[in-house]
Inverse folding.
């Protein structure tokens, strides 16, 4: 038998050659030039077409390879692509099968490694070094691992062909000399040839692996030695820096006078140390004083000692906040002067709330397989299974803004509107603290769905949310407290999927009114961004600016949520702000992070000076007293990572309660099934509710548009999420909210929904006959 002329396929090499491909019943098999490279099998009519025209490509990572007979084989990726191929001989077919199996194994590994390596897009921790060297080592290790897998694949093929050869030899021994002899000898010869081809492939793989290992052995030894030496040098440097830091700290404490115009960043940060021996204080100060470099650039320095001694009111505001060094903290003073505060009296809860929900099931689903066809679309128009949800509705997420209601309780007791503004600002930031790990999508509420949060006896407030609009989806929220404040808002979400990330832009204003002072505050929410949609670990960032306005006094607070940047030296999730009066004079500087805490410092004097900002302007230098803590996030409950990272409040939101409206989110069946871990049933129930809502929507449109074209009235855009359909004529939904009236906001001039009353009275009567049947 003559030697085969085609090259022996080596693991990982590009393999090319002629094959016959089935086209149709008229032309049958046609000769095509096939190229196997990087896990992809492509074909061309001629070799000349390789530079410009590819007739088809199939990814081997998900493909199935099947042998039909001695020369024919089939490659299919599950139905969309199927190649029926024929080689010129059995030996040639086996060469291709060997090359395809090796390429498929490698493509599958590369795909798995790509999925696993996605976490590299997660915000890196500070202090990473040697990135290039680590990348090189990781690349080499992956290459070596690939070669080992090639050897394993070749080993399997050798075992397979060896067994076939052994069977042929056994059959040859039992054959008598005669007509069958030549046929059996031919089979044995072909089996031996196939065995030799596979053996040569394994020998080539072994040779590549050995050469690669030898080439990098010495380099690894040198790199290891260099790393050890660098570690020793770093330890010595760290010890020297610690000694210098201790010396500078003692020298600073011994200083008696600090020039008011001092703008040295190191001195600035030392001047505002909260006075506690926390090892993280220095980092927190750096986070504070580098704030607002793009919009309102400023530097803070310790106030002149005369302000500490005399307590004189240089900034022109009242001293009731107690921001002097020797006074109690802001929270302590407020609580001590108000015996009605929840912290100063023992409250017995009406009922014991639950502290756990069933653990989240470990169901795997590829987000990109669903999102890749939705780039550029509104989030509300993207069909989503419950696998990407969390067992709470958007109404319940909106009610979570009240997680730290105590900040408004304290603000209601403030005598100064500027002090009150600090608490309102801290409350605004605190509403984002629950989102840091919450990558699950809340359920879109059905039109007319409600959610009540009655904490009157425990916490002194009641809250009601209702889905008031179908297109665009919008929810109205109203909360009132016995402790002197009211919160109301209407939020609609504008969202876009950008491929790598998802942007969610809340629309609408939030109002907070304090009864005692009649101060009326308004503000808007910032943009939420979900990163690593395609690959990697999902993570959430908040970015943008918030202007809180007191419409009675003209006071303002400008907050800036700094977006995450890989190149920034600042702490992640940083928030900074300045509280000013109606004349633009600064009275407080705010600092912190939206996932941990907020602090404020009283401004004693301000001036232009210091280093220039990003736009060339001079930064404002604020002389401040020591920072006082306004708010700190409550730690998540134990096991929160298995319960969707819910906070203590969030765990209770979907707890069944008696007497709530039949439209309450707690009674939503698909959401309840998901919480119980029955996701398949939840998906089926979700589809039923969506179809029921579409039917109700079409019925309302028929009633509202009897005089219009019936076809136009019935045309709707099919969606697969609640609150997501819209007619093509652009008509607004004729639905009228149950508990909220649509009007123009007198403060902002925006159309909004304001609570008309009656819900809690209806609950006391237990008469829900007027509520729609939405579940």
């Amino acid at each position: 038998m003559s030697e085969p002329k085609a090259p022996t396929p080596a693991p990982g090499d590009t393999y090319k050659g002629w094959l016959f491909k089935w086209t149709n019943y008229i032309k049958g098999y046609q000769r095509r030039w096939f190229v196997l490279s990087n896990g992809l099998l492509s074909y061309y009519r001629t070799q000349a077409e390789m530079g410009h025209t590819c007739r088809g490509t199939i990814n081997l990572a998900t493909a199935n390879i099947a042998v039909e007979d001695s020369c024919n084989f089939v490659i299919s990726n599950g139905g969309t692509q199927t190649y029926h191929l024929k080689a010129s001989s059995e030996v040639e077919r086996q060469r291709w099968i060997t090359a395809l199996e090796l390429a498929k194994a490698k493509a599958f590994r590369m795909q798995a490694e790509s999925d696993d390596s996605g976490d590299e897009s997660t915000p890196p921790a500070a202090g990473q070094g040697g990135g290039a060297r680590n990348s090189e080592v990781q690349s080499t290790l992956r290459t070596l691992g690939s070669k080992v897998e090639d050897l394993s694949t070749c080993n399997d093929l050798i075992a397979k062909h060896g067994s076939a050869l052994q069977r042929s030899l056994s059959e040859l021994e039992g054959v008598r000399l005669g007509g069958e002899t030549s046929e059996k000898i031919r089979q044995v010869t072909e089996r031996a040839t196939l065995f030799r081809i596979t053996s040569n492939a394994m020998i080539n793989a072994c040779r590549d692996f050995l050469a690669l290992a030898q080439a990098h052995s010495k380099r690894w030894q040198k790199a290891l030695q260099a790393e050890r030496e660098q570690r020793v040098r770093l330890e010595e440097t760290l010890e020297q820096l610690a000694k210098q830091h201790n010396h500078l700290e003692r020298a600073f404490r011994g200083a008696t006078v600090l020039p008011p115009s001092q703008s040295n960043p190191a001195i600035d940060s030392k001047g505002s140390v909260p006075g506690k021996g926390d090892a993280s204080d220095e980092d927190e100060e750096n986070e504070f004083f580098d704030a607002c470099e793009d919009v309102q650039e400023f530097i803070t320095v310790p106030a002149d000692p005369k302000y500490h001694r005399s307590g004189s009111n240089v900034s022109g505001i009242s001293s009731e906040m107690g921001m002097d060094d020797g006074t109690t903290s802001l929270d302590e003073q407020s609580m001590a002067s108000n015996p009605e505060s929840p912290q100063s009296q023992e409250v017995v809860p009406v009922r014991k709330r639950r502290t756990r929900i069933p653990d989240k099931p470990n169901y795997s689903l590829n987000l990109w397989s669903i999102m890749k066809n939705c780039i550029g679309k509104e989030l509300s128009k993207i069909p989503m299974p419950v696998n990407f949800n969390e067992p709470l509705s958007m109404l319940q997420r909106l009610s979570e803004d009240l997680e730290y209601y105590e900040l408004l309780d304290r603000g209601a007791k403030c005598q100064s509107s500027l002090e009150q503004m600090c608490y309102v600002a801290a409350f605004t930031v605190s509403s984002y603290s629950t989102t840091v790990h919450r990558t699950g999508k809340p359920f879109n509420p059905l039109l007319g769905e409600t959610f009540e949060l009655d904490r009157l006896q425990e916490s002194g407030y009641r809250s009601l949310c209702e889905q008031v609009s179908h297109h665009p989806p919008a929810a109205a929220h109203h909360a009132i407290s016995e402790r002197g404040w009211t919160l109301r808002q209407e939020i609609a979400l504008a969202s876009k999927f950008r491929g790598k990330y998802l942007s969610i832009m809340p629309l609408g204003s939030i109002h907070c009114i304090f009864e005692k002072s009649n101060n009326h505050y308004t503000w808007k929410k910032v943009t939420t961004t979900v990163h690593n949609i395609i690959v990697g670990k999902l993570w959430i960032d908040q970015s943008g600016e918030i202007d809180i306005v007191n419409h009675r006094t003209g006071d303002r607070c400008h907050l800036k949520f700094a977006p995450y940047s890989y190149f920034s030296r600042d702490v992640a999730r940083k928030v900074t702000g300045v509280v000013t009066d109606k004349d633009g004079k600064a009275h407080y500087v705010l600092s912190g992070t939206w996932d941990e805490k907020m602090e404020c410092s009283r401004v004693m004097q301000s001036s232009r000076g210091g280093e220039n900002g990003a736009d060339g302007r001079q930064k404002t230098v604020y002389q401040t007293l020591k920072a006082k803590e306004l708010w700190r996030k409550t730690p998540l409950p134990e096991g929160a990572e298995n319960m969707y990272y819910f906070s203590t409040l969030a765990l209770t939101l979907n707890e069944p309660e008696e007497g709530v409206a039949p439209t309450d989110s707690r009674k939503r069946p698909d959401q309840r099934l998901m919480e119980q871990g029955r996701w398949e049933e939840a998906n089926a129930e979700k589809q039923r509710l969506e179809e029921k809502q579409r039917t109700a929507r079409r019925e309302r449109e028929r009633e509202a548009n009897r005089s219009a074209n019936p076809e136009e009235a019935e045309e709707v855009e099919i969606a697969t999420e609640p609150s997501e359909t819209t007619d093509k004529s652009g008509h607004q939904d004729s639905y009228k909210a149950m508990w909220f009236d649509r009007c123009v906001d007198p403060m902002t001039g925006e159309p909004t929904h304001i609570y008309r009353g009656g819900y809690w009275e209806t609950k006391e009567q237990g008469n829900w006959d007027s509520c729609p049947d939405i579940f």
User: Anything to note?
Assistant: The chain has a mean pLDDT of 77. The first helix runs from residue 90 to 116.
